[in-house]
Amino acid sequence: MKKTVFILMTILLSLPSCLQAQEKNYEPAWNSLRNHHTPEWLVDAKFGIYCHWGIQTISYEKGKEDWTDEQLLKQFKGENFNADEWAKLFESAGAKFGGVIGWHGSDLKHWDSDISDYNTAKVGPKIDIVGEVFKAVRKRNMKTLVSYHSIEGDEWINFAKEGVNKYDPDIFWVDASFGGTKGSHNKKVTRKSKFIGEGTLPSPVFEDKYQREFISYFFNKSLERKKEVEFVYKSNDIPPSVGMRDLENGILTETAYDVWMTDMDMTVPPDFPTHGWFYREDIPLRSTNELVDMLMDVISKNGVLLLNIPPKSDGTFPAEVIKNLTQMGNWLEKNGEAVYNTAPWFIYGEGPTDIDEGNYTYHHNNHFAQVQYTKEDIRFTVNGNNLYASCLGKPDGDLLIKSLNSSFKLRKGDIQKIVHLDTGKPVQFDHNENGLLLKSKGMEVDESANVFKITLK
Fold first, then answer.
1. Which parts of the chain have pLDDT scores under 70?
2. Distance between first and last Cα of the chain
3. CA-CA distance, 434 to 404, in Å (whole number)?
């Protein structure tokens, strides 16, 4: 008997924490769905990549702006698409999960659907885009993400369930039409989850009962398959503690006490009509420095960065995209200790850069690269007895971190040593009531963010 109990306990403890906590099926009720927990693998991953690729890519080519979907579909061939090359780029950039849009901007599905023949496996490029990308990503032991943006009509839930059944995504991400609280900011229906009722336009969003039905279906499939998954949504589209909220091209102004995500476009469009997300020729890209700075800012505030990278219509990536992401991967290879598996500190940092909330309650407040960090901006992460201070730039001479003064959280004698992560070299320092002074003598600093590993007693 004792041996049986021991075996059962061993099996139970070997299960992921979320599955230990939730042994029964989820009911399609918000109080039941609140038993779901964000998986640790996603909290620890910090960084993922996905791609906007479809007939909209063709529509942004010169002279094709007014083409019908059918005309665009005839041109959407994806003749040089290679899912393994996509996954290789995701991995080399330092991403821990990767994926692709499953449905966006038209009725065309990007997977081999059994419900509708209007899908990319049967028409257009004749490619099961979701399936091929997922297969390649999983070969590299990365987690998968699919995003559904087009939500119209009750039949959406059948396509969503099909995506779960056929492809078993680790992250199921839905856009604003799932709940409408982001869109309603513009319509003045709600703001920050309060009904203000100033809007008069109808808001055709997914009904509450269908939200509960799909999320419970997705979570129950994860129990059946003994895996940990996450549901990601926009703004206030569902109640708290059910999934992970996402901000579109948005940066929080402060530390969140729930783990959140920003989906950030690598392109920087000149205006909203140009918008972005899909590849457009001659649209500037965010630099490696900006990508690294954003990553460190987001994770210091308890966030996860999801980066969109735009493939060209033939399925290949522009040379500049590959270059910037490769450089980012090189930076993460040296400094990843301050990123992966870390937690935020009680303050996210210090420095002169303040971020405006924006007109959309954080959504789009970095849509046009409004946020530009400086070498005076410091961001913190922690792991064990190590505090990581990331300087978002190249310090000029000695670096004084004022928030680490000996009168605040770290007292004299608390710091054992400091190492510059990129070079692995020790850093001389002086810790006093004015701050933590990192001395530049003999220090080789990077042109991008510089991370200092502070080992505490």
1. 1-23, 203
2. 46
3. 8
CA nearest neighbour of 321 among 81, 80, 90: 90
- CA quadruple 445, 319, 125, 106: dihedral sign: positive
SS3 210: helix
Q: For 150-168, what is each residue's pLDDT tens digit?
A: 887 789 999 999 999 999 9
Contact between 388 and 381 (Cβ < 8 Å): yes
Cα angle 367, 348, 298; round to 5: 30
Is the whole-model pTM more than 0.90? yes
Neighbouring-strand partners of residue 248: 263
* CA-angle at 104, arms to 190 and 201, nearest 5°: 30
What are the C-alpha distances in Å from 277 to residues 179, 268, 274, 330? 21, 9, 10, 25
Q: How far apart are CA 296 and CA 178, in angstroms?
A: 29
Query: Which secondary structure element, helix H or strand E, spans residue 400, and what is its range?
Result: strand 399-401
Sheet holding 450-456, edge to edge: 343-350, 378-383, 386-391, 450-456, 415-420, 425-426
Q: What is the pLDDT of residue 103?
A: 95
Q: Which two tokens stand for residue 356?
A: 């405006």
